[in-house]
Amino acid sequence: MHSYPWRDEEFRNRVNEWAGKKITISNVAGGLRTLKQIVRRAYDGTQGRLYRFAICKDLITKIQQHYKEHEMEFYISAKEGEELLKRTGQEYPEKFHLICPLVLDWWNMKNYSYSAAALCYYGHFGDEMTFCEKIKSIPPPPPHECMI
């Protein structure tokens, strides 16, 4: 066994499998579809910055509360997060603070086109050594919370 389990491919596969199962539960329950609609509408270019951020944050909180009431957690994958950021409505700097805290498999963000700021704060710089130091068990540490 490695002193850093993350260096072991089998361990990494188990971590990814664990995250995949949790994310699938969120998707099957309809949260991702709802989130896409919220983000698309809020970031269609017709809303002011403060309004679109507040409305999205409020609705995401409601989705999370709904999941919690049903003894589930709401998460998305790094791939889905990138899609929400890049292909759902217009891009705005604050948008990643709404989406990235929902990315359960934050260690996979390095494999997608996240901004440097998003990858830095929410993806732990995409740095393998940081992953080694942070991910030592299943479940791994949760994603960072929204910083604004």
Unreliable segments (pLDDT under 50, ≥5 consecutive)?
none
How many helical elements?
7
Provide the succession of SSEs: HHHHHHH
Class from secondary-structure proportions:
mainly alpha
Proportion of residues in helical segments: 40-55%
The major sheet is characterized as: none
In percent, how much strand structure appears in the residues? under 5%
Overall pLDDT confidence: 91
Q: Please indicate the count of domains.
A: 1
Distance between the termini: 39 Å
- Name the overall outline: globular
Gyration radius from CA atoms, angstroms? 16 Å
The counted number of beta strands is 0
What does this protein look like?
It is built from seven helices and no strands. It has one domain (5-134). It has helices spanning 9-28, 31-42, 49-69, 78-87, 95-99, 116-121, 128-134. It is globular and about 50 Å long. 55% of the residues lie in helices and 0% in strands. The protein has 148 residues and is mainly alpha-helical. The mean pLDDT is 91.
What is shown here, in short?
This protein has 148 residues and is mainly alpha-helical. The chain is 55% helix and 0% strand. The chain has one domain (5-134).
